[in-house]
Each structure stands twice: as structure tokens, then as C-alpha cells.
Amino acid sequence: MHTAFTILIDGLTYASWLFIVALGLTLVFGVLKILNIAHGSFYALGAYAAASFVGWGASMKWAPGLSLVCMLLAAIAVAVVLAPLTERGLLRFFYGRDEVLLVLVTYAMFLILEDVTKLVWGANPYYVSEPYGLFGNIDIGVQSWVGYDFALVALAVIVGGIVWWGLNRTRQGKIMLAVIHNAEIASSMGVNVSRVYMLAFTVGIFLAALGGAFTAPMISVQPGVSVGVIIVSFAVVIIGGLGSIEGAAIGALIVGLARSFAVHVAPVAELFSIYIVMAVVLMFRPEGLFQRTQTRKI
């Protein structure tokens, strides 16, 4: 019973940040129909920017609690700076082209951003220790967990709720849903599709950077961190169904629990446990668990 509870808590912690990142990936695909290989690079940039912002705040003798604000500002800065450069300066010229070409373009962007991070921050790892101790430890039975892990779970719930509310309860969100359903019809009815693309891509980058920023206190921020993130994020959206918020949540939970189970029960299977789960799901649901029915075009 104790082991099962530990697996559950660790799985939820891993799934929380993964859901935030995968939510941005699935939102960009739902609106722009782009499999963004560079999504992991935005995660890494969020982590690096958070490390820089928190370090700057510490040098200014700010209160430790403001480090959370620094991490949020880091994610916003990454989205504000990179979204216009990427979407307006590059991706917009490839809309309507073959999907494989878009994948290659985002892969090239991934390679460029990897080198940019090395040029700006170097090859040495960064550590963001201040925020991790803000919430103390939480004792449950004989086991003790870091309070920051539970705060990260709460953040994932809040972010998921805000995105769902924004899409389903606001005017701009309903316009975005109309573009997701059929961009051509939405454009013919006066919707500025280009502006919707820009908004969706900005939110997607922000979510990736937010996941990176708030994961930075739990990891060593170093070159190559983006590679593992994009692979696992793709596993999440493939399991849940591309373009589905509910699928991203369930997919992240499945991946988190599968990894946690492997770590505690069969550590040698950790590296491929996620892919086993993905293969099993795709055997029975090739379109993913929550893939919406696609309109057939004649």
C-alpha cells in the first residue's frame, strides 16, 4: 500500500509539468496543424530564462517568495520575444504546404535554438534552488515529500482550467475553436485567422516555457534537456489524441504513472516503459484516446 501511494504521488508530480508542456504542443497542433519539433527548445529556454531571472532576483536581495514571480516573468518573456519572431518571421510562409515540410522547418528551428542556448548560457549546468524550498516538506505517514511538488500539481490544474475556460467560455476562445474546426469557413465569416494563429502560437510557447521555468528548480538546466522533453511530450499527445486538451491531461497522467511504476518496481524498464504504453494504446486506438472525429472533405 505504501509503495502504491508513493507511485501515485511521484506519477502525479511528473505528469503535472508534462501536462503543461504537452498542452501547449497540442494547442498549436489543433489550431495551426503543425507538429512543432522545436517545442522542447521553448521548454529549455523557459528553464534557462527562469534560472537567469531567479539568479538576478537573488543578487538584488529580493524576498525568496518573489522567485516564483521571476519564473512566471521568464516564461512570459520567452513567449513575447520568440512568438512573433517564429510565427510571423518563419512559419507563416509555410502555411498550407506539405506537413512533412513543416516538420522539417520546426526541426531546423530546434537545431538553431539548441545552439542559441549554448551561445547565450554556455555548456555548464544551471541550478535554481531557491524556489524548491519555499513550501517546505509535507509528511504523509512515514514518507516525506517536498511541498514544491504538490504546488506544481496545483499549477497544472490551474493552467488546465484556465485554458479550458478560455477556449470554451470566452469570445476569443470560441473564435479559436471555430478556426480549429474549419479555418476556411471561419475566414469567410470575417475571422482574422492570421491573428488567431499568432495568439495560439504565443500561448503554446508560453505553456512550454512555463513548464520549463517551473521545472527548473527540480532539474539541472543544461544543454540537451529539450530532447527528452519533446519526445515524452509527443508520447503524451499521441496517447491522448492530437488537438485534445482532455487527451493531454489523460495522456500525461498515463505517462507519469507508467514512468513512476517503472522507477519503483522495475528500474531497468524506465527508459522504454513510456513507449510500451504508447504502443499498446496505438494498437487499439491509432488516433489516440480522445481524438475528435475529423470532417471528411470531398
From TrEMBL:
InterPro entries: ABC_transp_permease, BCAA_transport_permease. The chain crosses the membrane at residues 14-35, 42-59, 65-83, 95-113, 145-167, 196-219, 225-254, 261-284. Pfam families: BPD_transp_2 (PF02653). Its main location: membrane. It is found in: Cell membrane. It is a multi-pass membrane protein. Belongs to the binding-protein-dependent transport system permease family. LivHM subfamily. This is Branched-chain amino acid ABC transporter permease. It comes from Variovorax rhizosphaerae.
